[in-house]
Amino acid sequence: MLKKLAVASCVAGVLSLGVGAVASAAPASGSASTGAGTQSHHLTCADAPKILARIQTVDAKVAARLPKLQAAESKATAAGKTKLAGRIQDRINRLDQVQAKTAAISAKVAAKCPAPAGGTTS
User: Which end of the chain has the least Cβ crowding within 10 Å, N or C?
Assistant: First the structure.
């Protein structure tokens, strides 16, 4: 009796795993193909105004933050706090990289969509 119960539970486990694997594999492959499309960096001209607006927002935040960080770095350097000044300089370098990235993306958008609707008028 115990042997039959063990065999029955093993069979039920294998069947449930097999059915579960098949059931989970079907939606995963379907959603992976659609998910990969939404996660790709494919640029369409319909998205250009939204992308450019986001870039303008990021650029405005970076432009507001850079002078504050540069002042803080010069203050830390003048006070002899070189370690702090180095960390602030690292932040400045990261913001410079962000500006370079946004400029590159803006150039790609402009190259692909020369006249996006409402993109550069504001």
Answer: N
- 15 and 50 fall within a common domain: no
Q: What is the per-residue pLDDT across 13-40, written as a single tens digit (0 to 9) for each?
A: 555 555 444 444 444 444 444 444 444 5
Taking CA 105 as the corner, what is the angle to CA 103 and CA 109, rounded to the nearest 5 degrees?
A: 115
Instruction: For residue 102, give every residue at least 6 positions away whose Cβ sits within 8 Å of its Cβ, in sequence order, or none.
Output: 55, 58, 59, 62
Contacts of 40 (CB under 8 A, 6+ apart): none
Number of Cβ within 10 Å of residue 52's Cβ equals 21
Q: Would you give the distance in Å from CA 63 to the centre of its chain? A: 21
- Domain ranges, residue 61: 43-122
Q: What is the pTM assigned to this prediction?
A: 0.56
Residues sharing a CB contact under 8 Å with residue 49, sequence separation 6 or more, in sequence order: 116, 117, 118, 119
Task: Give the pLDDT confidence of 53-100 residue by residue, as tens digits.
Answer: 999 999 999 999 999 999 999 999 999 999 999 999 999 999 999 999
Domain count, the chain: 2
